[in-house]
Amino acid sequence: MKRRLVLALATAALPLALWAQAPDPTGPQPDLPKEQLVIVGRGGVEHPFAVEMATTPQQQTVGEMFRPNVPADGGMLFDWGFPKSSQMWMRNTLVPLDMVFINPDGTIRSIAEDTTPRSLAVIDSRGPVRAVLELAGGTTAKLDIRVGDTVKQRIFGNAQ
Q1: Phi-psi bin for 68: left (phi > 0), alpha (psi -120 to 50), beta?
Q2: Which residue numbers in the chain have pLDDT < 70?
Q3: Rounded CA gap, 104 and 22, in Å?
């Protein structure tokens, strides 16, 4: 039992250890390719977004860092390619974000609202997710987006 606990702790700490050793970017990354995404809320209300696709480790490391704003109808989708636990932070991120953690079937697993800019606190998905959607802080509350709502996008195989 003790050995499993040590192994679990070491595995959980590995992504943070790699992050701590990663070179610190000095500015925002160029705009990434955009794709359409729709969040379907209560009563079938659709909320469309044009999101940047962060698909490579470098793009995912930099994310929204150093950007002065996130468009109200935009954001960034981090596609992990397969379900995994996701830990995010706000290092060098200048504005609050809503982080939407999305299951492989496109349903919203959890939401971290109005995250604190420049914080090193870990924001955890609370289980395996296929992707994380970063939106401007306050967007999920304003649009009444909730856990259980559906995100339609090609990576989830549910886009029209």
Answers
A1: alpha
A2: 1-24
A3: 28
